[in-house]
Amino acid sequence: MARNSVASAIVASVVVTSMWVAPSVTAQQAGLPPATNAPASEPAPRMADGHPDLSGVWWTGGDVGGRGYGGGRGRGGRAGGPPPATYASLLTPAAAAAAKKLADKDDPTLKCIPTAFGTLNVSMFDVGAVAQIVSTPMFVVMLTETFHGYRIVPTDGRKHREEVPPSYRGDSVGHWEGDVFVVDTKNFTDDTWISAEGRVSPHSEQLRIVERYRRVDKNTLEIEATLSDPKVLTGPWTAPKQTLVLAPFDQILPLNCAGL
């Protein structure tokens, strides 16, 4: 997906290397103040009610395969220690056996059916994501390029709608815990996968997802999520934390899907 490139300043640095290397001395040992060269981040904007304004177009830092892609660390991860549990590693024996009978050709997204999970975008945890948030006093609206998907998340304290039928992306309600926006989603259909691109990841209608959004500063959005599904998983799965950046444009683009 091509977009107009954004001009960036290039700062050239010259490193002079001496043949004689002096012993390493820290700034603190030398009695000097610590370096403060990093530019200060602008604080997150706030709405009239005082909560952080999550509005904006968020992505991983560039189009898939393009300059800047992955700059927002959209895939998450952590340094050191044992690798975190994967969704597949928590499947019950019965669910794992059923999953072995599925393959890439069974991926529902090949028929333009979105994944159940993906936070802002259907492909948030698979490839580059581009999605838009519009915050209002009563709702937080999440719009996605892929499949023209959307979620309308009430923030006025209402409960889940028990009268609506199950849906691909479930029924969401939200509330604030300080500066963190918490979204609770349930009432899913059972005919979607958690991930796309052939990664077999079935779930049941008992899937429940709790997400936590935090706008760290003007240009950074962190998203954490925990999935539970007592019919398919042996315990809750905590997805890798996502760190997205504010895109240099203010609208998402249409992305039409043609099913196979």
Can you tag this structure with a few keywords?
260 residues, mainly beta, ten-stranded antiparallel sheet, 1 helix, 10 strands, 3% helix
Description of the structure:
- With 260 residues, the chain is mainly beta.
- It has one domain.
- It has one helix spanning 93-99, and strands at 56-59, 130-135, 139-144, 150-154, 171-177, 180-186, 208-217, 220-228, 237-238, 242-246.
- Strands 1, 2, 3, 4, 5, 6, 7, 8, 9 and 10 form a ten-stranded antiparallel β-sheet that branches.
- Strand 7 and strand 8 form a beta hairpin.
- The longest helix has 7 residues, at 93-99.
- The chain is globular, with a radius of gyration of 21 Å.
**Total domain units:** 1
Q: What fraction, in percent, of the residue positions are helical?
A: under 10%
Largest pleated sheet:
10 strands, antiparallel
Overall mean pLDDT stands at 80
Number of strands: 10
Characterize the overall form: globular
CA(first)-CA(last) distance: 20 Å
Q: Structural class, please? A: mainly beta
Q: Can you count the helices?
A: 1
What are the low-pLDDT stretches, counting only 5+ consecutive residues below 50?
4-36, 121-127
Please give a quick description of this structure.
With 260 residues, this protein is mainly β.
SSE blueprint:
Layout: E1 56-59, H1 93-99, E2 130-135, E3 139-144, E4 150-154, E5 171-177, E6 180-186, E7 208-217, E8 220-228, E9 237-238, E10 242-246
Antiparallel strand pairs: 1-2, 1-10, 2-3, 3-4, 5-6, 6-7, 7-8, 8-9, 8-10
